[in-house]
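Reading group handout, session on sequence-to-structure problems. Before we discuss, look at one worked example. The prompt was deliberately terse, the way you'd type it at a terminal:

> structure TM2 domain-containing protein

The input record follows.
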Amino acid sequence: MSEKKKPWLAGLLSFIISGAGQIYTGAFRIGIFFIILYVLLIIGGGFEIFHPVARLLFILSVPPILWVAAIIHAVLYARKVNVQP
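And the output record:
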């Protein structure tokens, strides 16, 4: 059996860099997906929204939701990996 993954460390890594916790637990594709999507949302997010308030609301809501989802997923995936035989 492979080394046990620490769920708190997976969550911390995803807290620091969205997707890093997934890479730590072995879910490389999902980790890269979270990193690329987060960067795209930060850099390009909201440019198609013309109203400045709507653009600001988009940037302040969507990337943080993705960030929290990455943290939760990293912790749950680490727990799942630890249970598998």
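Points for discussion. First: The chain has one domain: 7-83. Second: DSSP finds four helices and no strands in the chain.
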